[in-house]
Amino acid sequence: VKESGRSAYRFHRPRRDVDLLARMRLDHDMRQALTAGQFALRYQPQVSLGSGQVVGAEALIRWRDPLRGDIPPVQFIPVAEESGFIVAMGDWVLQRAVEQAAQWWRAGRRMPVAVNVSALQFQQARFVELVDQTLRAARLPAELLELELTESILLRDADEALRRLEQLAALGVGMSIDDFGTGYSSLAYLKRFPIQRLKIDRSFVRGLPDDGSDAGIVNAIVQMGSALNLNVIAEGVETEAQREFLRAAGCDEFQGYLFARPMDAAAFEERVWSEVAQ
Ligand code: C2E
Ligand code: CA
Ligand code: CA
Ligand code: CA
């Protein structure tokens, strides 16, 4: 598919020594940033295409460095993945997101929160136990947590991944395949994995409704989702025309700047629950 060239570039980019130094420095600063409280989560609403209701929130990490300012995740997540720091960072994200969902739950607000999980985190032997303990500590019903996994995580060692997914499913947490369409899931695996949802990658939403291959891919994913009884959500929706295409295609939900950018918890509450805002 058309994205493969770009991701191959991302993983095999030749690196110069300055690059290496810059990445080491960034990694060092990141580790300090975690203890210094410079990380925060933003929440982006997930909206039903049928009812227009906000039915969930994706937690997205932010780093505000006092000297560098805001550093976007695309810059520091790959460095954290390479150094292994993503595991500690991911634990923090999981805990923070679960605490937030629990706080809403205690306030009578049922809002499932989706958390991005990286490969290294998912492969940790203690991952399932960590999820279980985190939910218990916060007293959050497991179905109010969703884990977003990528195709590459699931296909690396598919049998081991399947075992782990089944353990997570037994806890009752939701699971979705993120950036769907950019990797290559086989239909056989999709059928076996105990997941509930496919997230159509933004790269296929961008060209809607005019780009014929994007339109075809999106239609195919929606049909695949319906054949496999999976909920389908599209990310990166910026225009009315994109939203209308997705609604007509039979997609269930969308996420994107058209409705809202990722917001801090207070802004999210204001937007979603304040009586005046409707
Ligand atoms: P992703 O999981 O595909 O997340 C969606 C990204 O699209 C987010 O970027 C979000 O802010 C952005 N986005 C949402 N709506 C729109 C839109 O309408 N238009 C455009 N152009 N962009 C939109 P963000 O927050 O910069 O995150 C980038 C990536 O970094 C994420 O992609 C995810 O792979 C990773 N990431 C973010 N937070 C975490 C985290 O807590 N843990 C892990 N492991 N990865 C994370
Ligand atoms: Ca995601
Ligand atoms: Ca992703
Ligand atoms: Ca994406």
Automatic annotation (TrEMBL):
- Superkingdom of source: Bacteria
Q: Which residue numbers delimit the EAL domain?
A: 23-276
**What name has this protein been given in UniProt?**
EAL domain-containing protein
Q: Which organism is it from?
A: Roseateles agri
Q: Which residues of the full protein are shown?
A: 310 to 587 of 587
